Amino acid sequence: MQAWLQILGCVSDSAANGEEAVNKVNENDYDVVLMDIMMPVMDGLDATRAIRSNGYHTLPIIALTASVREEDQEKTRTAGLNDFLAKPVDPDRLKEKLLEWAGAKLSRIAATEEEP
After folding, report:
1. Which of 5, 17, 77, 87 suits a disulfide with 66, CB 3.0-4.6 Å?
2. CA torsion sign, 45 to 100 to 106 to 68?
3. What percent of the chain has pLDDT over 90?
4. Ranges 38-42, 75-79, 83-87: which has the least confidence
5. Helices (H) and strands (E) in the chain — how many of each?
6. What is the C-alpha separation between 33 and 48, in angstroms, rounded?
7. What is the distance between the alpha carbons of residues 5 and 92, in angstroms, rounded to a whole number?
8. What b/e readout covers 76-113, taking b as 16+ CB neighbours within 10 angstroms?
9. Which residues lie closer than 8 Å to 56 by C-beta, 6 or more apart?
10. Alpha carbons within 13 A on the beta-carbon side of 77
11. Helical H runs in the chain?
12. What are the domain boundaries of the chain?
């Protein structure tokens, strides 16, 4: 994922688990969060709930999940995630979602001619 983000011109960070993700959001200023749903220590749904309860109500959080069932998508929305990307992640969909949720902050991506 970080390689694709780098190709798109994004500066990225990573977390080894959901608890670390919550701590990083509390300590840094992110334009968008790509949240893996299946993580150790704290899963992506609980991590998102914690991020939202810490006051980050407008931070776009996009779920990364292998499950595309409607009931699972509903769980992500209920937990406070804004959208989801199905795994394996298609680089074109990644680019679309980043532009959709981070918009002008990521305008340099829109100007990228070559696809990753």
Report:
1. 87
2. positive
3. 47
4. 75-79
5. 6, 3
6. 10
7. 11
8. beebbbbebbebeeeeeebbebbbebbeeebeebeeee
9. 25
10. 7
11. 2-7, 18-27, 44-53, 70-79, 91-102, 107-110
12. 2-106
